[in-house]
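Anyone up for a design puzzle?
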């Protein structure tokens, strides 16, 4: 009997891992444990466009918050060679290698277990080799078809928002876990390689070249970007020496002139609005023929659905309006989203609601003859009310996230339609000058960091002296919207407030 009990205890210890804890405890969590956080990445990628695959390596400078046997990071659809992984503490000469590793596809995490506890402090985790597929699902690091002088070719491009950086390299793929990124690419010599920052140097070796880029400022993993292909471009420069380029299909550089003009003018408007200069030395915009969204605000390298960026002399006014709106939207994200990022996807409205309102603000200043505020009232507000009254669509601005798959659901019409309506109300409540001054103060306070909706309310209250949180929080926390009914008699007016949450026979039904 005693032997049996001893055997059971031994088996239990083995199943829990050698050091008293099982990696299973890291599973089915919404977010990564904060015992290890990234400070900087040195990322190397080598795409193989012909075989739809890529390989890479990454060195991550980590801060160990408390001594631990485990390092838990995000990784999805990657093959990580475990014998090429090691950790070196700062100031230490001993290179530690994990004794075990686990990949949990459902949770999109990779767990490393070390025999010796990693000490509190900083160190470098080196992952010397991993591989993945350049798929065609338009997420992560993928391959897109495009035309080069009448020949069908392939480009490699990234789309990391919201949780797809982990499909390209092992990382801490949460918006608040900001770090710097130094990207190096090995690509065919005849192709152009773009990333968030300007190139630092190029080294050619026969048919291949290695392109190294300047290190980025601190930013979230979902904003890292890479584009590899053949392009023409048009270029301009702002008054404070920011180089702005629009990359176009080969032979169609003139199609980028309209977007270049809108981009340069938008930067000027936002720099004045936030009273903070655009913080990178360059801004590139490039159209991707096969693209998941309308556009993506990657810091310094904005990617667009090609149909929404390029404007020809023959393009209809509607095309110009769409292009101007989406360019202004993505450029506003360089402040609202990139410089200050929501702490978690629950507060994605801090990105998208403000960017949608700011795009109208900027386009109105660039093209006052378009009367875009009337269009905003006629389309965004009206459609936002309609969507918000549908129980199947309506949800609070502050979205509850129970699983990473809920993040995609949160990026819906409510955020993009109701979101800017809420911002417009806030603008009216504070007044134009006070709103602008308060938003500038908020961006300055949380620059290079993350914020929540509560942080925004607090910052606006300090700047304005008004109870912003008490007034506005009901609009972000509740589903639907209030409607007012009035019963009028000869002597009295009786007012009742209802909450609209359904549409019947094309009419709002509130109750």
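Challenge accepted. My sequence:
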């Amino acid at each position: 009997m005693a032997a049996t009990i001893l055997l059971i205890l031994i088996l239990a210890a083995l199943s829990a891992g050698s050091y008293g804890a099982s990696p299973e405890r890291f599973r089915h969590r919404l977010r990564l444990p904060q015992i290890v956080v990234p400070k900087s990445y040195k990322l190397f990628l080598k795409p193989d466009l012909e075989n739809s695959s890529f390989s890479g390596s990454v060195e991550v400078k980590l801060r160990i918050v408390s001594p631990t046997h485990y390092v838990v990071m995000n990784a999805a659809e990657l093959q990580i060679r475990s014998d090429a992984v090691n950790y070196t503490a700062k100031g230490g000469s001993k290179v530690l290698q994990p004794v075990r590793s686990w990949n949990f596809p459902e949770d999109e995490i990779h767990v490393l277990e070390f025999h010796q506890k990693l000490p509190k402090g900083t160190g470098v985790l080196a992952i010397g080799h991993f591989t993945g597929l350049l798929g065609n699902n338009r997420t992560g690091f993928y391959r897109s078809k495009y035309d080069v002088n009448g020949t069908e070719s392939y480009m490699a491009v990234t789309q990391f928002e919201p949780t797809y950086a982990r499909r390209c390299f092992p990382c801490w793929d949460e918006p608040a876990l900001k770090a710097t990124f130094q990207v190096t690419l090995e690509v065919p010599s005849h192709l152009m390689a773009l990333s968030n920052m300007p190139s630092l140097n190029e080294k050619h070796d026969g048919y291949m070249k290695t392109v190294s880029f300047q290190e980025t400022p601190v930013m979230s993993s979902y904003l890292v970007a890479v584009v590899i292909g053949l392009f023409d471009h048009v270029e301009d420069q702002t008054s404070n020496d920011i180089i702005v380029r629009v990359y176009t299909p080969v032979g169609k550089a003139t199609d980028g002139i309209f977007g270049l003009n809108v981009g340069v003018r938008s930067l000027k408007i936002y720099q004045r609005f936030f009273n903070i200069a655009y913080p990178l030395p360059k801004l590139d915009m490039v159209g991707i023929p096969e693209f998941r969204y309308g556009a993506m605000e990657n810091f310094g390298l904005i990617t667009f659905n090609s149909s929404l960026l390029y404007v020809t002399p023959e393009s209809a006014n509607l095309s110009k309006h769409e292009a101007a709106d989406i360019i202004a939207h993505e450029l506003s994200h360089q402040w609202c989203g990139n410089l200050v990022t929501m702490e978690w996807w629950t507060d994605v409205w801090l990105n998208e609601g403000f960017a949608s309102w700011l795009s109208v603000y900027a386009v109105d200043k660039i093209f006052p003859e378009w009367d875009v505020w009337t269009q905003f009232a006629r389309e965004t507000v009206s459609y936002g009310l309609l969507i918000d009254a549908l129980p199947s669509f309506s949800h609070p601005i502050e979205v509850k996230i129970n699983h990473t798959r809920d993040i995609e659901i949160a990026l819906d019409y409510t955020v993009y339609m109701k979101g800017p309506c809420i911002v417009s109300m806030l603008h009216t409540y504070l007044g134009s000058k006070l709103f602008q001054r308060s938003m500038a103060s908020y961006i300055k306070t949380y620059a290079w960091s993350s914020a929540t909706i509560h942080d925004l309310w607090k910052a606006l209250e300090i700047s304005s002296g008004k109870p912003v949180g008490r007034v506005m929080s009901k609009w972000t926390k509740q589903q639907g919207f209030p409607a007012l009914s009035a019963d009028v008699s000869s002597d009295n007016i009786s007012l009742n407030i209802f909450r609209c949450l359904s549409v019947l026979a094309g009419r709002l039904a509130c109750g």
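A detail worth pointing out: The first strand starts at residue 36 and ends at 48.
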